[in-house]
Amino acid sequence: MDNKTVYLNGQYLPLDEAKISVMDRGFLFGDGIYEVIPSYSGLLFHFSEHMKRLENSLSSIRLVNPHDRAQWLAILTPLLDTSLDQSIYLQITRGVAATRDHAFPANVTPTVFAMCSNIAPFANLDSGVKAISIDDSRWELCNVKATTLLANILLRQQAVEKGCAEAILVKDGYVTEGAASNIFAVIDGILITPPIGHEILPGITRDVILEIARQNNIPYSEDIIALDALKTASEIWLTSSTREIVPVVQLDNEIIANGKPGPVWKTMNRLFQAYKQSSHE
Ligand code: PDD
């Protein structure tokens, strides 16, 4: 195992020495939130937006942010390798309680953990990936980046077992997002993604793509997408901090357009690659 350095509760230490109590509420209840922040050439990408989402997630679960943004930057930066494309995984749980009780414990210090991984280029980018559509069985706080991911992993696993890269989730006939990604479709020449709300995570990659579309006069709209409409799309993409923009060429048993990544994806991916190398905060 790569015994890299990680951060746990104020200390930098080798991964195999980073230990938490079995009474940690993250372990017992999934009572915590997380962030995944990409880093290009040692600079955290859209750091302020990730911090803003972290703050929203924390306040949604009624946890006080243990650090300000400058402190977070100081904590995370030593984990980065400036020569690589990486991502920081950052998790905060409600902490270690004396007894297992669903109600919040009093006077508990949150557990803070961070580690860094290399971003491996996602396979099959040139040929695209397959996805399945599946009922969105998650809860009503999908806008919170909660570590409570049992529904997401069960949904993703069903996709994997069908040889697919992602599960596209459908609620009441409308597409929400992927199990760990946001969704875009090109329908009648317009780039469409479902609007922000409690049914999806407000993806930072999603925001960057909308901004790039705006700057480059690519027609776009934040609108609901029926599963039936998705099946008529000329392009479908899945987006996330770790996979970036992945073209989907097959949904369930249907081939999308000609079964190859489409022209809008090619343009957007080129613009995104240029943007991520030049635009940091
Ligand atoms: N997941 N929707 C869900 C449910 C996600 O889990 C993610 C990312 C996204 C995309 O968000 P962003 O563009 O900010 O990465 C949307 C991360 C990568 C993860 O859980 O590892």
Automatic annotation (TrEMBL):
| UniProt catalytic activity | 4-amino-4-deoxychorismate = 4-aminobenzoate + pyruvate + H(+)
UniProt-listed Gene3D superfamilies: 3.30.470.10, D-amino Acid Aminotransferase, subunit A, domain 2
The organism sits in which domain of life?
Answer: Bacteria
Q: What broad class of enzyme is this?
A: lyase
Keywords (alphabetical) are: Aminotransferase, Folate biosynthesis, Pyridoxal phosphate, Transferase
One CC-aspect GO term? cytosol
Pathways per UniProt: Cofactor biosynthesis; tetrahydrofolate biosynthesis; 4-aminobenzoate from chorismate: step 2/2
Q: Listed GO molecular functions?
A: 4-amino-4-deoxychorismate lyase activity; transaminase activity
Query: What Gene Ontology biological process does one annotation of this record name?
Result: amino acid biosynthetic process
Cofactor(s) recorded in Swiss-Prot or TrEMBL: pyridoxal 5'-phosphate
Q: Which CDD domains match?
A: D-AAT_like (cd01558)
- Which Pfam family is one of this chain's hits? Aminotran_4
User: Where in the sequence is the signal peptide annotated?
Assistant: none
**Transmembrane intervals:** none
Q: What is its EC number?
A: 4.1.3.38
Report the family membership: Belongs to the class-IV pyridoxal-phosphate-dependent aminotransferase family.
Question: By its UniProt entry, which PANTHER family does this protein fall under?
Answer: AMINO-ACID AMINOTRANSFERASE, D-ALANINE AMINOTRANSFERASE
Protein task: Involved in the biosynthesis of p-aminobenzoate (PABA), a precursor of tetrahydrofolate. Converts 4-amino-4-deoxychorismate into 4-aminobenzoate (PABA) and pyruvate.
What name is this protein filed under? Aminodeoxychorismate lyase
